[in-house]
């Protein structure tokens, strides 16, 4: 009797009993054919086994992890559901406006003032070299400083306002390095809506009126001051103007002065220019010193 061939199916498909055990994991279907030439070729999986199945079960098994991933994707969906309820988002959204109160607006005004003052001061000191020495002797003796009290008001001790004043001074010193002195600070009691801010720099100015024009023009934009009116500058001389402004619904009174030796401004929050103007000359005299 002749011996059966060692490979009983040389040109055909493997026997049916090898199908379930012969197929490897879905990611490597080729090697299951035990080294047949069709294994490295990708078309082999299309007819591997019986044509009726076409690995139909196995592709669905490959999709099973994807469906599993779908279930996994449903798990992240639950947090989105919670987010839609608004519980995590709603709670932090409410408090910030209450905590800020008017402080955030005050700090924005401070920034606007620093920008105006620094730009004006830088231009002023640049042209100072063109003046004759005799014309600027008195101006060189002018200094500005933040007094211990301003119009009877103590310095504000609030940490944020104190930090803002420090930053204001740092910016002025950086942007106007030739200034002979700078002054900045807050006075009063914000809780009682009695708050005054000062910002000033000293240095020889070639054109005080021109600098005053520039400062008031910029402040008209930054603080929505519709009109600056000329006011009495007081015994220190120079020129001064005051106007009513508003910053984010906070009323402010603004007075600016300029002379040969300094440029400065005083701003009252929550009050009108009429309130500020009655104190302007006194407060300027507490900030600016000559000789």
Topology:
Blueprint: H1 18-22, H2 44-47, H3 57-85, H4 87-93, H5 95-100, H6 103-127, H7 133-140, E1 143-144, E2 149-150, E3 153-154, H8 159-175, E4 181-189, E5 194-202, H9 208-222, E6 229-231, E7 239-247, E8 250-259, E9 262-269, H10 273-287, E10 288-289
Could you characterize the architecture of this molecule?
There is one protein chain. The chain is of the alpha+beta class and 291 residues long. The protein folds into 2 domains: 18-83, no CATH class; 101-289, Protein Transport Mog1p, Chain A (3-Layer(aba) Sandwich), CATH 3.40.1000. It is 45% helix and 19% strand. It is built from 10 helices and 10 strands. The chain has helices at 18-22, 44-47, 57-85, 87-93, 95-100, 103-127, 133-140, 159-175, 208-222, 273-287, and strands spanning 143-144, 149-150, 153-154, 181-189, 194-202, 229-231, 239-247, 250-259, 262-269, 288-289. The strands form 3 sheets. A 6-stranded antiparallel beta sheet has the order 4-5-9-8-7-6, with helices on both faces. Strand 2 and strand 3 (153-154) form a beta hairpin. Helix 6 (103-127) runs parallel beside helix 8 (159-175) and helix 6 (103-127) packs antiparallel against helix 9.
List keywords for this structure.
disordered N terminus, six-stranded antiparallel β-sheet, Protein Transport Mog1p, Chain A, 291 residues, transmembrane, two-stranded antiparallel ribbon, transmembrane helix, alpha+beta, membrane
